[in-house]
Design brief:
By secondary structure, the chain is an alpha/beta fold. The chain is built from 20 helices and twelve strands. Strands 2, 5, 6, 7, 9, 10, 11 and 12 form an eight-stranded mixed beta sheet that branches. The chain has a two-stranded antiparallel ribbon with strand order 1-8. Strands 3-4 form a two-stranded antiparallel ribbon. About 45% of the residues are buried.
Length: about 475
Amino acid sequence: MQYQSVISWVAGDCEAPAASRNCRIAATTGTALLRLFSITSVLLLLSGCAVRGVVVNTPGPQLNKESSYSIRAYQQKWEADENALMLAFSGGGTRAAALSYGVLKELRDTPVPTAGGSERLLDEVHSISSVSGGSFTSAYYGLHGDDIFEDFEDVFLRPNVEGALFRGLLNPLRWFSSIGRTEMAVRYYDNNVFKGATFADIQQQGGPMIVINTTDLGYGVRFSFIQEYFNLLCSDLSSFPVSRAVTASSAVPVVFNPVVVRNYPDCGSEVPDWLKAARARASDDLEMTMVVEGLESFYDRENRQYAHFVDGGLTDNLGLRAIHEVVMLSGGMAEFNRKYNRMPPRRLVVISVNASTERKSEMDRTDKQPSLGTTIGAMTDIQLHRYNTATIEVLKKSLSRFAQELSTEDRPVEPYFIILDFDGIQDPEQRRVLNQIPTSFELSDEQVDLLIDAGGELLRTNPEYKRLLRDLGNG
């Protein structure tokens, strides 16, 4: 998520630590009248002009077809994996995108022994779950594979994406246009980053499954861009634009309109048996009950003709919940493996790349009342960090339980939960600098370099990662 820099700019909170260059420019440009006009213009844009969402998802579930972008379609690649290696990329604007990119580079440069010699640990990754800023990296890697290391920095990490989007917002020709703010973002990402690619293009690349996550604004639950979830909409994901999914994953509410999809009536209103079974299993789990109820709501076709998707960080800013929920909705890890005809792996590995920064309040240094931007930012930070902590605890317990479910006396399964965040940076000054990098889509080249290097360092020095390498015969 990237609320703070936008709020600081609109609310005039140029003293906020995370205030963007837009804010600093506004504070130093011309007269108070110009500043008032700029703020009024933005507020006018934020209020909206009855813009309707552009719907592009097509009808027709494809789950049982080879062309579908589904877990079932990927299972043939996974069924005999010795290592089930999953990555989770958090939100956090370009900061998150650059940090996760640094982790990919380190995995690329890490060899592991195999029966035929050796291969890169990056080639062992079978899925990446991502949200918000992290979804730019995961989607680009899914589309381009190793080519990400050739041009991703120039295409996304180093350009001033935030400036390009705000210039569009402030263009008077756009104020009364039927093209909403979100459509402007979709077009920018489609033209400049993803080049018209669809989920079928990711599948054709043959790499890991990329799970981009968003939030269903109407019911407050997480939603993944995989065919199993698009079946709820009676819709085909394969032809859906990657740029639109990534925009949905990173669409900050109020600043951007939701991404809208059609919930087609062709599949009827009868809740499927698998979802009924999931409801029965979740009877003693309040959180899973809420997830099931959110998914069941799509079968109320009359009242849910559309769904509105916003920043995935609202329901999971770490990208970890998708891993947990998909398994739990299947009835547990053993049932998940049976359903998809998978042999139990010997190692169950989750690497969480968390670009959240350390909470450090400046308001307590003075008796001055905090500004609107500071107040909203503090409220967001409190909720974000508390939920992140809860998510990590859920995954830690679940991963151990999943490994136990899969283990046999002859074939034990070992879990590895590798958590990467700025707390793992040993040098205090380096850690301080990293924690001061704002959540925005506008970073300096120096900041991008620091983040890429930090991603590699965090992975190399992580004790759990070192244990994994030793067990793989490299360490």
